[in-house]
TrEMBL record:
CDD domains: crotonase-like
Phylogenetic placement of the source organism: Bacteria, Bacillati, Actinomycetota, Actinomycetes, Propionibacteriales
NCBIfam families for this protein: PRK05862.1
UniProt protein name: Probable enoyl-CoA hydratase echA8
Enzyme class: lyase
Entry similarity comment: Belongs to the enoyl-CoA hydratase/isomerase family.
A GO BP annotation: fatty acid beta-oxidation
Native species: Desertihabitans brevis
EC id: 4.2.1.17
Length: 256
């Protein structure tokens, strides 16, 4: 039984709720292990088409667990390869939806950025305040934030430690939707259910194609996309999708 997360399954969507309210969902090593394990298990389950990761009303997550790190020295962090296990989320094919209310700071912001679709409540606040602790982001924040919102804003956040509100996060391209706090769970569930209603292997290809944009020059990314696009023509779901369109009926995908 996990200690730091709650999980709930509805049809084809798994929802993972970070659950350390006493620590504003600080990402302890136990939580890292439990989140990674739950997401990895879901990714291997053909019955799951999308995963929602969320926190509480007050905090998505206020960062890596500072109390766990305070006594560590360089030899410890090198030995543990501190925070490296989060990297497993980068290999997940299933689309991940982050539903963010309250604080998403440090590792919390980085966990949200490891997700594919970010939905924020109006009261969400994002930041990389590690500099105020005399350290720097360690779960990809300096890289993913810069790619998401550009050098100027990323430098501002990473060097001053200030938080940005949901409106600024949407304006900057970090999140795709901002909704009233009381609608966050519903909207995130709808987004996830919509993704999960598509052909699962095609969502994997689509996610991989968009992610390629972060890793390769344009010409290589476009070549990757075309190969993935062509690959969809080998799937019965692609035949069904196009046939259903021409027959003016909803598609009945086999792989969903
Ligand atoms: N680690 C451990 N405990 C944390 C925590 C964290 N990142 N963030 C909050 N908590 C704990 C607090 O210590 C407090 O516990 P106690 O009641 O036992 O003292 C409890 O959660 C509530 O927090 P506050 O009393 O501080 O609540 P607040 O409303 O006054 O402030 C906050 C909220 C502004 C988010 C503040 O808690 C805060 O600044 N938290 C730390 C944010 C931060 O620096 N995050 C980066 C962490 S480093 C990192 O993430 C590195 C990396 O990339 C891998």
């Amino acid at each position: 039984m996990p200690e730091t997360i709650l999980t709930a399954r509805t049809d084809r969507v798994l929802t993972i709720t970070l659950n350390r309210p006493e620590a504003l969902n600080a990402l302890s090593s136990t939580m890292m292990r439990e989140v990674v394990e739950a997401v990895t298990t879901a990714d291997a389950d053909p019955g799951i088409g999308a995963v929602v990761i969320t926190g509480s009303e007050r905090a998505f997550a206020a960062g890596a667990d500072i109390k766990e790190m305070v006594g560590l020295g360089l030899a410890d962090v090198l030995e543990q390869d501190l925070a490296a296990a989060w990297q497993a989320l980068d290999l997940i094919r299933t689309p991940l939806v982050a539903a963010v209310a309250g604080y998403a700071l440090g590792g919390g912001c980085e966990l949200a950025m490891l997700c594919d679709v970010l939905v924020a409540a109006e009261d969400a606040r994002f930041g990389q305040p590690e500099i105020t602790l005399a350290t720097i982001p360690g779960i990809g924040g300096s890289q993913r934030l810069t790619r998401a919102i550009g050098k100027a804003k990323a430098m501002d956040l990473v060097l001053t430690g200030r938080m940005m509100d949901a409106a600024e996060a949407e304006r900057s391209g970090l999140v795709s939707r901002v909704v009233p706090a009381d609608q966050l769970a519903e909207v995130a569930a709808e987004v996830a259910a919509t993704i999960a209603s598509m052909s699962r292997p095609v969502t994997h290809l689509a996610k991989a194609a968009v992610n390629r944009a972060f890793e390769t020059p344009l010409s290589e990314g476009v070549r990757f996309e075309r190969t993935a696009f062509h690959a969809t023509f080998a799937l019965e779901d692609r035949v069904e999708g196009m046939r259903a369109f021409t027959e003016k009926r909803p598609p009945a995908f086999r792989h969903r």
